[in-house]
Design brief:
The protein has 499 residues and is mainly alpha-helical. It has 22 helices and two strands.
């Protein structure tokens, strides 16, 4: 394993986070808040350690999938630990576990909070909460790909380890240009949302924080009632942009270069919008008697469907009071999630579609044993390796979900609370039902359960395997062997110098 590259990239991650931590300092300066000093302290420490880690360039920049997964998982853990320090040392979140939970929830774009009163936080702290969504939405390592030269298939391996979805490819021949293009689209859509929100007379601070949370499909609100207090125009703007950020960015690439017909033919996106439209219709009819009219029902249904399927987690109403059909449908949408290659979480529409097609193919095989029908997706044949990896993903997903449920259930809360708490964190959604509903928070869980849910948030955001690989014995064995060889090599060099 190329540990020198891992160390080098972790150094860059720390430096990048250090510079990003300076932005809340600016917010603190604008609002004359003393809390900004804590961001400055952590930023300087992060930058200093980052420079130490990345001072010595690796001799070999070759970087394969194993190193990609290890770097991604370690990078997100380090990112979260340093990111939570301003909350903790300032005392605004006095518990380290709670501060870490809030930060991991931010970076993984989950939006599950332990805070009963978000408005009690200072402006700079609330800005950092929302900004972590934007950083984690596209991925910090994707940003690094635009500036760090790697070889040996390294770039695509690093992106595969961090990007959500069953497969990741290049939009343009060079991965560096792909990363830059993704961030141009990401930044452009975020800026557009801010402008539209300002047209609705939303305050600039609110518009920026809301757009950061929407772009990362995170859902940290800066108001205690999330989005209930904003007008209908602002709710529809956020609804539309939540859905747009849940679209596979490959479709935006096609639109960006004028391939409109090809963009409209993207199969996953068509299924994604089909699921949204069908869900909005069903829920609108189901909650009509609880609303003031058809438009009000559609507004509430569209907002919550868009929020849940994209795993954003904003709420414009207490959907825990909706009829059972609507709540059940929302829980199903939690698992489906957004498109692959978007900022959304969940299992992903592409995996669901391929799994359904695989079932239909098997049924067809029973009815017509001699027929040979190739499974296709996005107008291309699906390789057996892709189907195998999706099946393994589903099995691993089920095992982690069940084990998490059992461990969290030790606290003896009701089944709905435990089930939706795991579902909401594992799928990076935020609110669940019952005690973790849209008007509640996760602060009542004990520290053990919180760490289980933190693991779920990281595993869900990193598509399971990059995080699980850290627990594989062979990884640590290789690290210790290489460390031992390095120590022995240094001893030999010192002996040679003495002689």
């Amino acid at each position: 394993m190329n540990t020198s590259v891992i160390r080098y990239l972790l150094g860059y991650i720390l430096k990048l986070e250090g510079f990003l931590l300076l932005l809340p300092c600016i917010v603190a300066g604008i609002y004359y808040e003393k809390s900004g000093i804590y961001f400055l302290i952590v930023a300087l420490i992060s930058i200093a350690i980052g420079f130490i880690f990345s001072a010595k360039k690796p001799r070999d920049f070759t970087f394969y999938l194993k190193e990609g997964c290890a770097t991604t998982a370690l990078g997100w853990v380090v990112l979260s630990i340093f990111g939570c320090l301003p909350f903790y040392i300032s005392g605004e979140i006095p518990s380290f576990t709670d501060a870490l939970f809030e930060t991991i929830s931010g970076f993984t774009t989950t939006g599950a909070s332990i805070l009963p009163e978000v408005e009690s936080l200072s402006y700079c702290m609330n800005f950092w909460r929302c900004f972590t969504h934007w950083i984690g939405g596209m991925g910090v390592l994707v940003f690094l790909l635009a500036i760090i030269p790697l070889s040996g298939g390294s770039n695509i391996n690093l992106m595969r380890a961090e990007s959500p979805g069953p497969s990741v490819g290049k939009l343009v021949p060079k991965m560096k240009h792909t990363a830059r293009l993704l961030y141009i689209i990401y930044f452009g859509l975020t800026t557009m949302e801010i402008i539209f929100l300002l047209f609705g007379k939303m305050p600039l601070y609110d518009a920026i924080c809301t757009s950061l949370g929407t772009a990362g499909t995170g859902g940290f609100g800066i108001k205690n009632d999330s989005f209930c207090g904003y007008n209908v125009y602002l709710q529809w703007v956020v609804t539309i942009f939540m859905i747009l950020f849940g679209v596979n960015f490959n479709a935006y690439y096609l639109l960006f270069f004028g391939h409109i017909r090809d963009a409209l033919k993207v199969e996953e996106v068509r299924y994604y919008f089909g699921i949204i439209i069908a869900s909005v219709v069903v829920i609108s009819v189901n909650i009509a008697h609880m609303c003031t009219g058809v438009f009000d029902a559609v507004t509430k249904a569209a907002f919550q469907v868009g929020s849940i399927i994209t795993t954003t987690g904003f709420s414009s109403t207490d959907f825990d009071r909706w009829p059972e059909l609507s709540k059940t449908l929302l829980v199903l949408l939690m698992f489906i999630g957004a498109c692959a290659g978007s900022t959304g979480g969940g299992i992903k529409v592409s995996r669901i579609v391929i799994a359904v097609k695989t079932i239909l193919k098997e049924l067809n095989g029973y009815i017509h044993p001699k027929s040979v029908k190739k499974l296709t997706f996005e107008h291309k044949p699906v390789d057996h390796d892709v189907i195998r990896s999706i099946n393994v993903y589903f099995m691993t997903y089920a095992v982690i979900f069940v084990v998490s449920m059992l461990l969290v259930s030790v606290e003896n809360y009701d089944f709905t609370t435990n089930f939706t708490a795991v579902a909401a964190t594992f799928n990076n959604i935020g609110p669940g039902l019952s005690l973790v509903g849209p008007t509640c928070n996760f602060g009542f869980f004990n520290n053990f359960s919180k760490y289980i849910l933190m693991f779920d948030m990281l595993a869900g955001r990193l598509e399971l395997f990059p995080l699980l690989i850290l627990f594989h014995p062979s990884i640590w064995k290789e690290l210790f062997i290489q460390a031992d060889k390095k120590v022995k090599g240094n001893r030999k060099e010192k002996q040679n110098v003495r002689m």
